């Protein structure tokens, strides 16, 4: 069983559609001992484990839907920078999980300095996630370099800000990039900045007519609990229906 759990959580399995089929077959075996595929005996704990395996699979499959908050084609020329913070405020229209923080990486060949990046809840200016993105660390998606973080759940209707700090002129930012696409789920409020010499949350006027990248993040939508429960219950009911047919009643 330990090997099978490792298979579920192994590298590259998050996008494997066979995971859900595997979990369903495990559920059948655990409930009805058809071929003891998972090596477990019939008991109430089997049912609990079967449901738990289902949610592990769903959580893994959900990662396939990770999308960038900001995306755009690379500009021909990078923009000069200055010491300070660039911030993008947003108020999610749905709940979602932030899974990575990043910075724009011109040519995607590595950043010229380490950039502290933080996700703030604006009310109280509290930091809820942080990373330091630099060099060739992390991974590239689109024109951003990202570092994965422990997923953070953001709530619809609460205002947040993604902030990236730059020290001195690096000449590696993107000023008002053409073709900018902002994910509608994030509820974009606007851009602002400050010239502080340390990472901080800018509190200036929010502008929607300009951008300067800067920071970004990856996220995926949080599934509705009711939907997961319905699907899980449906799989269990389907498993129950697959019992061996009973002999006909001969009263």
How do the strands and helices of this protein lay out in sequence?
Blueprint: H1 2-9, H2 18-32, H3 44-62, E1 67-68, E2 70-71, E3 84-90, E4 96-104, E5 111-121, E6 126-135, E7 139-141, E8 144-154, E9 160-166, E10 174-175, E11 181-182, E12 188-194, E13 212-213, E14 215-221, H4 225-241
Describe the protein in words.
- The chain is an alpha+beta fold and 251 residues long.
- It folds into 2 domains: 2-65, no CATH class; 67-221, Jelly Rolls, CATH 2.60.120.
- It has 4 helices and 14 strands.
- The protein has helices spanning 2-9, 18-32, 44-62, 225-241, and strands at residues 67-68, 70-71, 84-90, 96-104, 111-121, 126-135, 139-141, 144-154, 160-166, 174-175, 181-182, 188-194, 212-213, 215-221.
- The strands form 4 sheets. The protein has a 5-stranded antiparallel sheet with strand order 1-14-4-8-7, with no helix packed on it. The chain has a 5-stranded antiparallel sheet with strand order 6-5-9-3-12, with no helix packed on it. A two-stranded antiparallel sheet has the order 2-11.
- Mean pLDDT is 79; it is low at 1-17.
C-alpha Rg (nearest Å): 23 Å
Overall mean pLDDT: 79
Strand line-up of the largest beta sheet? 1-14-4-8-7
Beta-strand fraction estimate: 25-35%
Count of individual beta strands: 14
- Share of helix, binned: 10-25%
Under CATH, the topology of the largest domain is which?
A: Jelly Rolls
CATH class of the largest domain: Mainly Beta
Q: What characterizes the major β-sheet?
A: 5 strands, antiparallel
Secondary structure tally, helices? 4
Oligomer: single chain
Shape descriptor = globular
Structural class: alpha+beta
The tally of domains stands at 2
Distance between the termini: 44 Å
Q: Which parts are unreliable, with pLDDT below 50 for 5 consecutive residues or more? A: 1-17
Following the backbone from N to C, one meets helices and strands in this order, namely HHHEEEEEEEEEEEEEEH
The CATH architecture classification of the largest domain is Sandwich
